[in-house]
Amino acid sequence: MTVAPDKTLYSFPSSDDAMAPEWPGTPIGAKNTITRQKGRTPIHDKVVDEKAGLFKRLLASSFEHIAGSKAPTYSHDVVIHGMRVRAITNSEHLIGYWRDNWFSPSEWADRTGIKLAETPDILVIALGRVPTEAEAAYYSRQNDTVIFFNTSYYGQLKSWVLGAVGRKLAVDYGIHSIHGAVVTKDGKGVLYIAPTGTGKSTSTYGLMEFPNTRFHSDDWVYVRYAYPTSAGARISPARVLEGGREVARGYQCYRWLEEHPRSADTVIGRGLDDAELTCAAKDIDVDHPEAYAYTSEKVFYLRSNLVESFPQAAFDMVRSRLENAPDVSAEFLAEHKATIGKVFAHLKGKKPFDAMHDDELRTTIGRFFAFDNTRAMFDIATVFPKERVFMNPMEPARIHATFLIKRNFDEDLVVERMGIDAFMARLMVGRTPSGAKEIVYNSYRAVDDKSERSWLDTIEAKGVDKMWDTYQKAEDKPVTLHEEMEMFRMLFRSAKAYDLNTVLEKDKAITSRMDAVSRTMRIIVAALDNESDDFRYTIADYSKLLGPER
């Protein structure tokens, strides 16, 4: 008995247990768990605090179920960019991924030298087999708590937790949580921000093919905006005090400092090593902010379809615990014969694939990319030497260039330097390849995104080219949106911004996806070294930028 999509190219084993949120799939890798819910839950409520009594009811339902259940309940604390987050769950799959994904408090202390208080900053409760609740996800900003019922899909849990941590970091510390990826080249950080399916992970791993690169982060990055001080330090402001009274906090500090450049008021913040710093506002160079990226994941949760573009990833994938790896049909294998064949050529005869017969190897390869949302816990340090990976989550990477990636075949544009109007409008609209809109390409922000979207639609209607100007003049902008856009304004001030359109397949000289990826990486490297404001190339002339093959 299987659950199949419209085209019978792949399917998932099902469970006869109607209450089971997870069950074993056909073996592949170290373990393969099928989750009943493979995306966002039907109920997803991020405004629990606006509904009187709801949070209290959800919490009571959670702990009543725990108290009355005979099944084991697991609890484990992790650290996400300095925030202690406690998860309580009865899902073996979720607790396993949770422990793999993040640093424990002791691991965090070992890597960074920083010890945390015992009280958690964020609480996460994720319970399955709760008959009185639907498949649902809830978030309370007031209580810094995430509650999930009857779903074991780790992707949504992780994203909502990151959103909850991000809200706290933005408001209290001015630290920006971005759905993006970072790689450094010759010490210069490249930040990719993109909707799903446009090449963010592909670009991350693709750049690692170049010398003098280091892998930083794959899916989520924390950015601190820091200013040079007259003492030669770098300060990331968190609070501004005027005569002992707080006048700005978190993300509010940036605008305040720009408006009071010669103030003697006290700025309290952090250095790049997280040590507390204090100085007068007049001693800060507000005209030259810098952006520094930090990673928090110990092991990366990513799509296993990475093997399509980078077959070498399969060596770690086949040792990983997988989520929702499907079974594939003969039709799928035939339809994707060329892609499977190219990956097959890289793997055949090499351990552990040398123990597989040819048909088994081809089927295994197909299972890695048949379903777009098959995921793995991927230890990047097994792919690249440790010296080429940021192993310390408090080691900063200076961001020199930001790439907003899209895949729009209706445009001939390949790459273009962006001004602030285009940069901010693009993030506000957040158009994805499917035509949907995701504000700042992050559908899991812990905010009332429906209200934000409705408000943004009103200013978009006045013209995309006018959006940033209209936004700045508006007095009724949602507070949560202002938090986000104020920090993206700082990102633009701190690093060059580019529009990157991953459509090189339109060039008839391109012979394969791997070839397209390789050329796109060379474009990124060229842009990283560029200082011109009128840097722009299309399908017709991008080859001039690349020069002869080396």
* Low-confidence spans: none
Class by helix and strand content? alpha+beta
User: What is the top-level CATH class of the largest domain?
Assistant: Alpha Beta
CATH architecture of the largest domain: Alpha-Beta Complex
Radius of gyration using CA atoms only: 24 Å
Shape: globular
For the sheet with most strands, the description reads: 14 strands, mixed
Number of distinct helices: 16
- Counted beta strands: 28
Residue-averaged pLDDT, rounded?
94
By oligomeric state, this entry counts as single chain
Instruction: Give the termini separation.
Output: 53 Å
Q: Strand-residue fraction?
A: 25-35%
CATH topology of the largest domain: Phosphoenolpyruvate Carboxykinase, domain 3
Overall tally of domains: 4
State the share of residues found in helices, binned by percent. Answer: 25-40%
Describe this structure in words.
With 550 residues, the chain is an alpha+beta fold. The chain contains 16 helices and 28 strands. Strands 11, 12, 13, 14, 15, 16, 17, 18, 19, 20, 25, 26, 27 and 28 form a 14-stranded mixed sheet that branches. The model has no long low-confidence stretch (mean pLDDT 94).
Task: Give the topology, please.
Elements (H helix, E strand, L loop, with lengths): L1 E2 L6 E4 L8 E3 L6 E5 L7 E3 L8 H15 L5 E7 L2 E7 L2 H10 L3 H8 L9 E6 L8 E5 L4 E5 L4 H20 L2 E3 L1 E6 L2 E6 L6 H8 L5 E5 L3 E8 L5 E9 L2 E5 L2 H8 L6 E5 L5 E5 L9 E5 L5 E4 L10 H4 L3 E3 L3 E2 L1 H6 L1 H11 L10 H12 L5 E4 L18 E10 L6 E5 L2 H10 L19 H12 L6 H7 L5 H16 L1 E6 L11 H16 L7 E3 L3 H5 L4
Parallel strand pairs: 4-22, 5-9, 7-8, 8-10, 13-25, 25-27
Antiparallel strand pairs: 1-2, 2-23, 3-4, 6-7, 9-10, 11-15, 12-13, 12-14, 15-16, 15-20, 16-17, 16-18, 18-19, 20-25, 21-24, 22-24, 26-27, 26-28
Helix pairs in contact: 5-15, 9-10, 11-14
